[in-house]
Amino acid sequence: DYLRCDIIRIGGITEARKIAALAETYDIKMAWHGPNDVSPITHAVNWHLNVSEYNFGIQEDGTVDNLIKKVVTGGPYYRDGYLYMDDKPGIGCDIDEEAAAQYPFVRTYLPVCRKADGSLCTW
């Protein structure tokens, strides 16, 4: 069995560690949610949790757009088919605030879903 959670929706690193510890007592593997639409910082947190948990199971991981690499540097990286953790303090990522200022936040919304009965609902 696997438990898939999204760290940014469950309360952060501390809550994630508590959930992983509880899942371990029932021999449930962790599968932290990591699709392409989460930041490289979230991916770094996912991998840090994975290497610190006995019950690591599988990890979703996505590619990082080159535009994002201008803003967020460091973090886990692949070499010769293996994932390596950066040895920088914390989660190993840095944010270039000057580069980030070139891309101001624009609020967007997910489209609505349509249920089988035709009614609309949010994601």
Low-confidence stretches: none
Strand content: 15-25%
Average pLDDT, rounded to a whole number, is 88
Order of SSEs, N→C? Answer: EHHEHHEEEEHEE
Query: How would you name the CATH homologous superfamily?
Result: Enolase-like C-terminal domain
Q: Kindly name the structural category.
A: alpha+beta
CATH architecture classification? Alpha-Beta Barrel
Indicate the overall shape.
Answer: flat
CATH names the topology as: TIM Barrel
- Largest beta sheet: what is the strand line-up? 1-2
* C-alpha Rg (nearest Å): 17 Å
Largest sheet: number of strands, sense, barrel closure: 2 strands, parallel
State the helicity in percent bands.
Answer: 25-40%
Give the N-to-C terminal Cα separation.
25 Å
- Annotation, overall tally of beta strands: 8
- Give the tally of structural domains: 1
Number of H- or I-type helical stretches = 5
CATH class: Alpha Beta
